[in-house]
Amino acid sequence: MKTVEKTIGVMDPNAFAFRESVEKLIECLAPSIEYNGVINKVSTRRIKCRPYDVLNAKTTCHAIINRGAHWNPHHNSFFQRVSHQTYLLNDMGSFFAINKNTSYGHMSELGLKIPNTFALPQEDNTELENSTKVSPDLIFPEYEMFNLEEIGEAVGYPAFLKPQDGGGWVGVEKVDNYEELLIAYKKSGEKPQNLQKAVDNYKEFVRCVGMGPDIIPMHYNAASEYSHDRYFRSDDVVVDTNFLEKDAEKEVKQICKVINAFYGWDHNSCETLMTENGDIHPIDFANAYPDSSLVSLHYYFPDLVKNCVKWMLFVVCSERKKKIFGHDWDAYYKLKAKADKENWSYHKLLDGYEKLADKHYATKDFNKFVKNNLGKDFDKKCHDFFSGEEFDTILSTEVERYFKIPAERPAKIEKYRDIHKLWLDDNK
Ligand SMILES: Nc1ncnc2c1ncn2[C@@H]1O[C@H](COP(=O)(O)OP(=O)(O)OP(=O)(O)O)[C@@H](O)[C@H]1O
Ligand SMILES: [Mg+2]
Fold it and tell me: How would DSSP label each residue in 321-355?
């Protein structure tokens, strides 16, 4: 049988443990996978930032794990240049086009329970005023005056004012009334904002991370002082793997999978808030660079790495192609129109969207590939890797890189080793 070499490019300059684990796990698996009549030998290659011949640009990578090109225009232009020759996880064309408010709008139109949200133009126009490239006398008459108080009333209080393309909670302000809204908007600066009704007194905050059709739901404690402590269940309990009822788990996974498939995103996170009556509201779900740090994800980290490796192996072995973003939106909107006409329940509608999402991800073929082609010993080999010295070095290096006070580090490393041991025991 013919043997074909397949290369997965890896570009993630900010997440040390994630990229190291993906690379080292693939090396350790040494995949030699029979699929569609050929043997696929898969390896990885680190993609570095360097000059390239624009007119003759080629990539030798059959797929590229792109995490972070939106911060590096040179990387990004290279990836977009060769995007049709490879499979980009994720492609920035879609992430640049879709920010928080556009996705809130589309998903609300599809029937997801998005809180009331108004998009507001940037408060500070100094950059435009001082620009030599625009004519202020033409630009500013095109701006309409608006009544912020009326918008605040229409959205409802309490509400969150947050940048349309925000991240890391930067510039996120909770406001309880118009006076607070006015102060927050006045200081919001040059970034267009979203004013969103708060989902108050929610009983559960769930953050899902998707990798292809695999979705991991995680409990999230937004009240934690440090961002790296947010995935702990409580001060005493590290993780609760049964924190969601079956129906709620199904729903949060469906929401994340449907959003990701709708935009053609392979790797994205979705934050949802669940109220006492069981309603689930998505509040943040357009993240080109989902937090995949070992220090924040701890227990969940090995499963995310495994999901990434499984999905990338499927992508290169099945020679999966990526269509231009937004290619099958009509199917979702058609389904919504049918559901409205026939008075479907919300859950029947979600089931319908999930079928479209599974078609997008070829989920059936993917699951078959995992079962038959990765084989019975895939989980065992992964477990061996995560119990080995190589991973222990990744873990301790990541923890040392993250915690800046040297005296703190030995205890932190032990703590993360203990948490990791929980995962090893649960997955024996
Ligand atoms: N509508 C809402 N109802 C309740 N809480 C909200 C709402 N919107 C935002 N928040 C709170 O503010 C936090 C930050 O908001 P959001 O996730 O939209 O910003 P972000 O900058 O993208 O954050 P990150 O990068 O951590 O995801 C949320 O994690 C949540 O705790
Ligand atoms: Mg968020």
Answer: --PPTTTTHHHHHHHHHHHHHTT--HHHHHHHHHH
Write the residue with the smallest CA distance to atom 7 of ligand 1. Answer: 198
Q: Report the residue count for the chain.
A: 428
Pocket test for ligand 1, best of 157, 169, 202 (most atoms within 8 A of CB): 169
Rounded CA-CA distance 294/296 in Å is 6
Q: Are strands 193-197 and 159-163 parallel, antiparallel or unpaired?
A: antiparallel
The share of the chain scoring above pLDDT 90, in percent, equals 86
- The closest of 285, 284, 282, 261 to 273, measured between CA atoms, is 282
Measured in Å, how far apart are the chain's first and last C-alpha atoms?
35
- Cβ(164) – ligand 1 distance below 6 Å: no
C-alpha 231 – ligand 2 centre gap (Å): 13
CB 282 within 8 A of CB 210: no
Residue nearest to atom 30 of ligand 1 (CA): 222
Q: How does pLDDT run across 378-418, given as a tens digit for each residue?
A: 999 999 999 999 999 999 999 999 999 999 999 999 999 99
